[in-house]
Amino acid sequence: MTKPRILLADDHTMFVEALHKVLEPEFDLVGSVGDGRALLEAAPRLKPDVILLDLSMPLLNGIDAAQQLRQSLPSVKVVFLSMHGDPTYVTEAFRAGASGYVLKRASATELIQAIRIALRGHLYMSPLLAKGVLDPLLHHRPSPSSAQATLTLRQREVLQLVAEGRSLKEIASILCVSAKTVEFHKTRISKQLGLHTTADLTKYAVTHGLVSP
Asked: Is the whole-model pTM more than 0.90?
């Protein structure tokens, strides 16, 4: 019987190596990537059944990557494997199309169970998560404090890269736009959020899970 195909997306090498040992007996691990943009390139090529995805990744965070994957690969199941247990992060992950959300401190048995449930077309949420997660998710109430409720996808992309300390020229190259376009987006972001320094924008990005502290 063919094993389900798994693609790993996490920028911590030692953690990815540990996942290989846990998952290899039951699944076909088709590859691993270390940032969100590499994931968007690899997923269509490798055609996984399930993507195990970290929330905070360089270049493009997991939530925004999952949103784009939902458009290009709607049949792929996405299971977040994250250290973040805040209800806002979890809710945004499911709104982005996740089939599961597992905390990194969970057991290997729980992770395998989450993957199996996702493959059957159901949703899985770690029992360790805060009880307040499901209510706003099921009732589709907006999350006013979330970056996703305020900014467009392109604005979130620019904000993340600014928070990572990249120059306008670097951001322009990554996003394949002009530096002037990047500057325009940064100015709009600052105006919309009422934040006028790079330090304030970075703090906002960290608070909303777009980049790691």
From this structure: no
